Structure formats: C-alpha cells, structure tokens
Amino acid sequence: MSEFIASTIECYEEDGVVTIALGDDPIDPNGYIVITRLDDEDNIYIDEGIGFQTAQSSHEVANSIDEVILHSDGLEVVVKQEFIGHCGAGRFFGRFPDEINSSKEKVALLRSYLKDIFDGSHVRLIM
After folding, report:
1. What is the distance between the alpha carbons of residues 10 and 24, in angstroms, rounded to a whole number?
2. How many helices and strands in the chain, by DSSP H and E?
3. Who has greater pLDDT, 41 or 29?
4. Alpha carbons 86 and 67: distance in angstroms, whole number
5. Is the separation of the CB atoms in 40 and 29 below 8 Å?
6. Is 127 helix (H, G, I), strand (E, B) or coil?
7. Digit-coded pLDDT (tens) for 102-115
8. Do residues 73 and 60 lie in contact, with contact meaning Cβ atoms separated by under 8 Å?
9. Which residues pair with 79 in a beta bridge?
10. How far, in Å, CA of 34 to CA of 77, rounded?
11. Which residues lie below 8 Å from residue 81, measured CB to CB, with a gap of 6+?
12. Is pLDDT above 70 for 100?
C-alpha cells in the first residue's frame, strides 16, 4: 500500500472534468492521487471516463479503479489488478491530518464529489 498525508484536498470542475486531488503538498507533492471524470459521448461505458493518476504513474489511466473507501481518517483507492504495475501499488491511502479531519465542510465536499464521479460506474464506493 502507498500511503501519504493528504494535507491538501482539492475538489473542482473545469471544462466538464470533475476532479478530486489529494496530496502531501499544495505546490510540489511527493505523494498524491488524482481522480477525474469526463462524461464524453465517445465513452461507451462511464468507467472509461474515470481516470486515476498517482505520484508513481507517468500519466492518468482510465477504468483502473476497483473500489474507493472514504474512511473517517482518510481516502483509500483500490486499483484493479491489471493496473497495479502502472499505478505503482494496489492500494493508495491519503491519510487526513487533524485539520482536514476536523473540517466538516472539506469532508462533505469530498463526499459530494466522490458521489458525482462514481455515480453510475462499476466502482464500488463505500462511504
């Protein structure tokens, strides 16, 4: 498992792409994950529009997430077996520091964006 302190959490939509980014630094993170969703008419399945990138991967890869679990102390992403090599690990855990964990607004926003990204997909979302 790849674990980092998720001291920065960003949730936003830009040009039709919904994005969640967790990192250990707001400017130059060493540990991070980025989850995106682009609803495109060229995608046959919703999952093809959901991308995942990590600090260990060279680029985003679509349809690579098996499960996402929002724990009380962090966000865990489980990668599909065939993408472990590309992503650098099978599980990623962004641990929330106390200031994030105590921010009900930040966690509520993350929860909302997780629902938006994985709505209608085959990814198992546990919150």
Report:
1. 12
2. 3, 10
3. 29
4. 17
5. no
6. coil
7. 678 889 999 999 99
8. no
9. 65
10. 10
11. 66, 90
12. yes
